[in-house]
Write a structure and sequence with these properties.
Layout: H1 2-21, E1 41-45, E2 52-57, E3 64-67, E4 72-73, E5 77-81, E6 86-99, E7 107-118, H2 127-133, E8 140-144, E9 158-162, E10 165-171, E11 186-190, E12 196-200, E13 208-214, E14 220-224, E15 241-247, E16 252-256, E17 264-271
Antiparallel strand pairs: 1-2, 2-5, 3-4, 3-6, 6-7, 8-11, 8-17, 9-10, 9-17, 11-12, 12-13, 13-14, 14-15, 15-16, 16-17
């Protein structure tokens, strides 16, 4: 009996040793099992073809963020007044517990998109769009306001200011010695199927098309694919994002607190005549 027990213990130990040499898991099985087909998306329009939208992710237990062209939001629902007509695709990025390159800060996302057709702008837009693009939303051209007067009476349109206070003037570059190379250029904004921004370096330039985007509370504007008028690699914001100091029908003042030169910078524009 004792001999049988001894053989049993030896056999069990051999099995454990053999098992320890085998992989604990099949790595091919450890992959993202999330299925985009199981995520329910919807866009609800307040009116037929209207621009007041409720963009929804309706699957319980799923978290992530929406990319709805104008901005991104980490939420399952976005309520927005969309500013232009056309067929548009919104994408939801669902967070999964799987990590890319086995690092916690690179989680894997899966994505799913939904489309909507906006045929009419029946809901009034936020005032910032009318100021930037025009009262009829048909497009608007902006140039430097070279007659804008600073608090001390001097003209100012492109200037170095403090990175902590846009009202603290350090150097009135544009109106003194050193205006930007595109000082006579222009910017055109329109909503013809997209938030279009066209940058012209001079009156004779054919123009280069990009896009623009406001943030959610209309306190900043980002220029995509093209530079802001008044381009200088040491002066512009590397992220092309600018704080809106003033945006009205007759003036736009933009500011960055961080540029490649380590200072703040100020731009003053007016509608072209």
């Amino acid at each position: 009996m004792k001999l049988n027990k001894l053989f049993g213990l030896l056999a069990g130990a051999s099995l454990l040793a053999f098992s320890a040499c085998e992989p604990i898991e099949d790595r091919d099985v450890l992959k993202n099992s999330f299925d985009a087909d199981n995520i329910e998306l919807a866009v609800v329009q307040a009116t037929n073809g209207g621009n007041k939208l409720s963009i929804q992710m309706n699957t319980p237990g799923v978290t992530g963020y929406w990319d709805y062209i104008l901005d991104t939001k980490s939420t399952d629902r976005v309520e927005v007044v969309f500013p232009f007509t056309g067929t548009h695709e919104f994408t939801y990025y669902a967070t999964t517990p799987y990590m890319t390159n086995d690092t916690p800060d690179t989680k894997e996302y899966i994505q799913k998109s939904v489309t909507v057709e906006v045929t009419q702008l029946d809901e009034p837009l936020p005032e910032a769009y009318y100021a930037l693009v025009g009262d009829d939303l048909g497009g608007k051209t902006w140039v430097f306001d070279k007659d804008y007067q600073w608090s001390d009476g001097q003209n100012l349109f492109w200037a170095m200011v403090a990175p902590y206070n846009w009202q603290e003037l350090w150097w009135n570059a544009g109106s003194t010695c050193c205006p930007p190379g595109d000082a006579d250029g222009k910017m055109v904004f329109d909503l013809a199927g997209a938030p279009n921004y066209t940058y012209f370096t001079s009156p004779d330039d054919a123009g280069s098309l990009g896009s623009f985007a406001f943030n959610g509370d209309f306190t900043s504007i980002t220029f995509n694919e093209q530079s802001i008028l008044g381009y200088d690699p040491a002066r512009v914001n590397p992220d092309s994002k600018y704080e809106i100091i003033e945006l009205s029908s007759d003036r736009m003042i933009l500011y960055t607190a961080s540029n490649a030169g380590g200072t703040g910078w100020l731009w003053v524009f007016k509608p072209a005549e």
